[in-house]
Write a structure and sequence with these properties.
Keywords: DNA-binding, Transcription, Transcription regulation. Pfam families: HTH_1, LysR_substrate. This is HTH-type transcriptional regulator YwbI. By secondary structure, the protein is of the alpha/beta class. Among the domains are: about 1-85, Arc Repressor Mutant, subunit A, CATH 1.10.10; about 160-265, D-Maltodextrin-Binding Protein, domain 2, CATH 3.40.190. Helices cover about 45% and strands about 25% of the residues. The chain has helices spanning about 5-15, 20-25, 30-45, 60-85, 100-115, 130-140, 200-210, 225-230, 240-245, 280-290; strands spanning about 50, 55, 90-95, 120-125, 145, 155-170, 180, 190-195, 215-220, 240, 255-260, 265-270. Strands 3, 4, 5, 6, 7, 10, 11 and 12 form an eight-stranded mixed sheet that branches. Helix 1 crosses helix 2 (about 20-25), helix 1 (about 5-15) packs across helix 4 (about 60-85) and helix 2 crosses helix 3 (about 30-45).
């Protein structure tokens, strides 16, 4: 068993799929399957339960995957420290990025960073903010973008966007011509929300509960454009950040400020400061902080 096999195990567990893990690692699916089978034969246990196209860790797989994450993290720290000692300005950064954030803020920043440090590679993992925070706290990702405040201890952060949520409705909705809407007025509406692994999902449901009702959620998605299209089709209403609202075709929906309460949406970059941080990660944080501070 070697470090490469442990990395394969972690990626298959993360994606729940041999095919997706192979794509993320830029190798063939048969190669990753062969490596996992070799591990199973060597250890004498079954690591994954094959459920059609999806796979899940067995009890033994979960135990080994937990140890594998620590071993791989230690290996990355070792190689990063050696690179720093040799004063090589190169490396690899794993960044967690919620899907609705990436296109709005990061292509330009990543492009500029690559020009300055062409030998530093960046691997993006798209997932909900809750999952990203969990992965950074566990050390699986070096850096992540989340909705602040964080819930895990030991995380450092800096904010780069402070906005609020707006109501998005179909033009035929009874509230469509209003200049502002209170949350309590939406108690009888059907909601289209982000999935449960998105912080925004919990925040909206929590605010609705605070104002005396449980929202009727008819659909959940990880894609803001699909959510807005469902609203445009008259299937329900949604609450989206101002940045996302600026990307929506306002001829097909109505966007209305939400009041009582104003629900904040504060984005930040997070990392752990209680473990070794590679040159590449330190430079990325400093560069991103400088560039994204211009957004505020």
């Amino acid at each position: 068993m070697d470090i490469r096999q442990l990395q394969y195990l972690i990626e298959v567990a993360r994606h729940g799929s041999f095919t997706k893990a192979a794509s993320a690692l830029y190798i063939t699916q048969p190669a990753i399957s062969k490596a996992i089978r070799a591990m199973e034969n060597e250890l004498g246990v079954v690591l994954f339960d094959r459920l059609g196209k999806r796979v899940e860790l067995t009890d033994a797989g979960q135990m080994i995957a937990g140890q594998a994450q620590q071993i791989v993290a230690s290996f990355h720290n070792l190689t990063s420290e050696l690179d720093d000692l040799r004063n090589l300005k190169k490396g690899h950064i794993r960044i967690g990025l919620p899907p609705m954030v990436g296109a709005s803020f990061f292509p330009k920043v990543i492009g500029q960073f690559h020009k300055r440090y062409p030998d530093i590679t960046i691997q993006l993992y798209e997932d909900g903010a809750k999952k990203v925070e969990l992965e950074v706290a566990a050390g699986t990702l070096e850096v992540g973008v989340v909705v602040l405040p964080t819930t895990h201890e030991g995380l450092c952060s800096f904010p780069f966007v402070e906005e609020k949520l707006n109501l998005v409705v179909h033009p035929s909705h009874p509230l469509a011509e209003r200049t502002e809407v209170e949350l309590a007025e939406l108690a009888q509406d059907d909601f289209v929300l982000f999935r449960e692994d998105f912080t925004l999902h919990d925040r909206i449901i929590g605010e609705c509960a605070r104002f005396g009702f449980q929202p009727h959620v008819i659909y959940e998605s990880s894609q803001w454009d699909l959510i807005s299209e469902m609203v445009a089709a008259g299937l329900g209403i949604t609450l989206l950040p101002e940045t996302i609202c600026r990307e929506i075709d306002n001829k097909r929906v109505k966007i209305i400020p939400l009041v009582k309460p104003v629900i904040p949406w504060k984005l930040g970059i997070i990392w752990r400061d209680d473990r070794y941080m590679s040159f590449a990660t330190r430079e990325w944080i400093a560069f991103a902080k400088s560039e994204l501070s211009k957004v505020l």
